[in-house]
Amino acid sequence: MSATAVLSPDVIDKYEPVIGLEVHVQLLTETKAFCGCANKFGAAPNTNVCPVCLGLPGALPVLNRKAVEFATLTGLALNCQVRERSIFARKNYFYPDLPKGYQISQFDKPIAEHGWIEIPTPNGGIKRIGVTRAHMEEDAGKSIHDGFADSLTKTYVDLNRCGTPLVEIVSEPDLRTPDEAFEYLTKLKEILLFAGVSDCNMEEGSLRCDANVSVRLKGAPKFGTKAEVKNVNSFRYIRAALEYEIERQIEIVESGGRVAQETRLWNAGEGRTYSMRSKEQAHDYRYFPEPDLPPLIVSEEWKAEIAKSMPELPEARRKRMIAEYELNEQDAQTLTSSREFADRFEEVAGKAKNPRRVANLLLSELGGRLKAANLELDQSPISLTGIGLAADLLEESKISSKQLKQLFDISFEKGEDFPAVYEREKPQQITDASAIEALIDQVIAANAAQVAQYKGGKKTVAGFFVGQVMRASKGQANPALLNELVTKKLDAQ
Amino acid sequence: MSVSLEEVERVAELASLELAEDEKPRMQRDLNAILEYVAQLNSLDTSAVEPLAQVSELLDAGSTADKGDGAALRVDETRPCLDRKVVMEEAPETNGAFFKVPKVIER
């Protein structure tokens, strides 16, 4: 197998990849799906376990109501139909981190199905990707194969994760390029984060993704044989793994071979996938209805109640913010890069005298400086609170925009937040009317021609006088007062 | 419908059971007897019967019916877990923190 050989673009262009994704997300409940053990990452091994999640004989599962609410929210957020009656099923397989010998999952009657996610296309359009189903299940424990003195002969098992509530979201095979897969995952994660059902932390395994991929000649009526790619722990690697896998399969087909239906593991270090070499027809999970759990009933009333608790989802929120703060699409995207940031922004903007000014300062003055310093928003020396203060000072004409720029520059130089810089370097502002009037008198005396223009009805010339006086005051005249006095003085000429 | 010896071996493999040679025909006989009984049930016309996932659904048709408001489900509040020391004492092999099992080989 040498997918390293470069296929010519002409050859690649003859084929169409078909990709479907399976995404597992851990739900943000306090407790596990079927018992009261804490659902928490990073606890000491085997300290969050009880007879239910250890699979001890006689222990019985009791479904977590919050997990049902989160699964319902997930379904609704993905435009799915939520079933009134869904059935839990046992998926049977043997593995040491699954002490019961089966995983409680859902099979033919999942809680949610027939949904979709919209993703952006390269030409600025939108493509709708089907969501086949979103079903509830429980996570398995963790097997540790390396790192202990006797790892050559022993596997270590930690069952803390066992029974963590999951939703598995299965897409239709609607994705056609690795980029589309990347966009789908990005959108999906954003929706789940905004819905507040999962923290989607890939490092901690709260979001995991497997990809099914096949290739076929363009126009061919049937899908090719698919391979399942596992063990991919970032969206960028998913894209890379798919790119690799697509080329590998095209090469096999081009050389007259047949793609094997198999599970392949992604090796990020080598940038390639490997066959797991599992036995033929290894998967036969013998699903049957879970006898220990009654059917799950979600009435229309309960569903409506859950829907009411749905936070504003990203697309809707961007639309609203575009209108409310007079933003463009790109700026709205920046402000809603995370729900947490959007919340903080709106909290500060909501308290500000002019919310639009907060957005504006954040995007132009701060955004520009961050870009120049090659910093991300969350690395900014100036906090959102600082932006809020700056916006209010500008709005009340307590500082001029020139002064603001200088203070922002100091913030960036010293890595100090704006309020502290402002307190220390608070620009001397001339608010003494007589001092400003003296300056105005000088400017008026020196510019008789412009005074004549003003008196002739060209009121906009006032701006010229304001500018001149501001310069004479070294930018320190209080802008509101200055405006007022200039008009007064000119009218009195 | 009847089960072949190969199918008996496959089912045993899925269940991680090792069958002795003389056990296989016996299992085949038992499984076929069960399937014959199911075939007998299948001869009934059930087209007008709502499928059940479990018998509790019959009981639920009465006064205990689930209203679908989640009231019968568990409130999401933590309960005490088991003391790890107690758990580890019951396991065949541990290091006091982890369970230890024979090296897992992917199958």
From TrEMBL, chain A:
E.C. number(s) listed in UniProt: 6.3.5.-
InterPro entries per record: Asn/Gln-tRNA_amidoTrfase_suB/E, Asn/Gln-tRNA_Trfase_suB/E_cat, Asn/Gln_amidotransferase, Asn/Gln_tRNA_amidoTrase-B-like, GatB, GatB_C_1, GatB_Yqey_C_2, Gln-tRNA_amidoTrfase_suB_CS
Residues annotated as domain Asn/Gln amidotransferase: 343-490
Superkingdom of origin: Bacteria
Keyword Nucleus: no
Keywords on record: ATP-binding, Ligase, Nucleotide-binding, Protein biosynthesis
One Pfam family, short name: GatB_N
Catalytic reactions on record: L-glutamyl-tRNA(Gln) + L-glutamine + ATP + H2O = L-glutaminyl-tRNA(Gln) + L-glutamate + ADP + phosphate + H(+); L-aspartyl-tRNA(Asn) + L-glutamine + ATP + H2O = L-asparaginyl-tRNA(Asn) + L-glutamate + ADP + phosphate + 2 H(+)
Keyword flag Coiled coil: no
Protein family membership: Belongs to the GatB/GatE family. GatB subfamily.
Purpose: Allows the formation of correctly charged Asn-tRNA(Asn) or Gln-tRNA(Gln) through the transamidation of misacylated Asp-tRNA(Asn) or Glu-tRNA(Gln) in organisms which lack either or both of asparaginyl-tRNA or glutaminyl-tRNA synthetases. The reaction takes place in the presence of glutamine and ATP through an activated phospho-Asp-tRNA(Asn) or phospho-Glu-tRNA(Gln).
Subunit text: Heterotrimer of A, B and C subunits.
Protein name per its UniProtKB record: Aspartyl/glutamyl-tRNA(Asn/Gln) amidotransferase subunit B
Organism: Acidicapsa dinghuensis
Name of the gene this protein is made from: gatB
From TrEMBL, chain B:
UniProt entry keywords in alphabetical sequence: ATP-binding, Ligase, Nucleotide-binding, Protein biosynthesis
Primary role: Allows the formation of correctly charged Asn-tRNA(Asn) or Gln-tRNA(Gln) through the transamidation of misacylated Asp-tRNA(Asn) or Glu-tRNA(Gln) in organisms which lack either or both of asparaginyl-tRNA or glutaminyl-tRNA synthetases. The reaction takes place in the presence of glutamine and ATP through an activated phospho-Asp-tRNA(Asn) or phospho-Glu-tRNA(Gln).
Catalytic activity entry: L-aspartyl-tRNA(Asn) + L-glutamine + ATP + H2O = L-asparaginyl-tRNA(Asn) + L-glutamate + ADP + phosphate + 2 H(+); L-glutamyl-tRNA(Gln) + L-glutamine + ATP + H2O = L-glutaminyl-tRNA(Gln) + L-glutamate + ADP + phosphate + H(+)
Record bears the keyword Iron-sulfur: no
Family designation: Belongs to the GatC family.
A Pfam family it matches: GatC
Subunit structure as annotated in this protein's UniProt entry: Heterotrimer of A, B and C subunits.
Gene: gatC
Highest taxon listed in the record's lineage: Bacteria
Protein known as: Aspartyl/glutamyl-tRNA(Asn/Gln) amidotransferase subunit C
Organism per entry: Acidicapsa dinghuensis
UniProt-listed InterPro entries: Asp/Glu-ADT_sf_sub_c, GatC
E.C. number: 6.3.5.-
